[in-house]
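Bug report (template v2)

What were you trying to do?
Predict the complex of my protein with flavin mononucleotide.

What happened?
Run completed; filing so the output is reviewed.

Input:
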Amino acid sequence: MHQITPGSDTQRELRDALGRFATGITVITTHSEIGPLGITANSFASVSLDPPLILWSPAKHSRRFAAFAEAMHFAVHVMGAEQSEIADRFSQNGTAFQGCDWQPNDHKVPLIEDCLARFECDTLATHDGGDHRIVVARVSRAQWRDGEPLVFSQGRVGDFTPRLPE
Ligand SMILES: Cc1cc2nc3c(=O)[nH]c(=O)nc-3n(C[C@H](O)[C@H](O)[C@H](O)COP(=O)(O)O)c2cc1C
């Protein structure tokens, strides 16, 4: 077992420890001053069913931070197993919509088609979260399809393999 007391000289190790927690991968989109904008994020989490609330955390060091931290409307796209290329693209480039099938909603938020799930959201509150901001939002519409998710753990992207019923 590795062990650290988190501090400025052990950030890498803390990241490694936190990376043991597997997540899905999402692409968050919004309408910004420069037009449609997207970002790959694994900080998405469900918060509440009644009212329907979710959260995610934009990093303050990101060049896309202001646009996402101030967005009143955005959409969360949960990536399916075969969509790692979309996640790759939006981790490198916020305007990588070429080749994506997408349409704007009533708030001009880009909605990418054929994702495993999609949540259209209205920002309710934002909270300071150290080097991130925590954005809490209300879900105004949820859509989903059958399929397997893209999974992220320990810096790697993979597939989800369900255990057979015992
Ligand atoms: C799997 C994965 C998960 C990520 N999760 C987040 C996240 O939750 N919040 C965030 O701000 N950036 C996240 N990023 C980083 C952004 O996608 C993007 O790479 C980063 O903002 C690049 O910096 P830039 O915006 O200055 O170009 C993640 C990247 C990857 C590959």
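What did the reviewer find?
Helices lie at 11-18, 65-69, 84-92. DSSP finds three helices and twelve strands in the chain.
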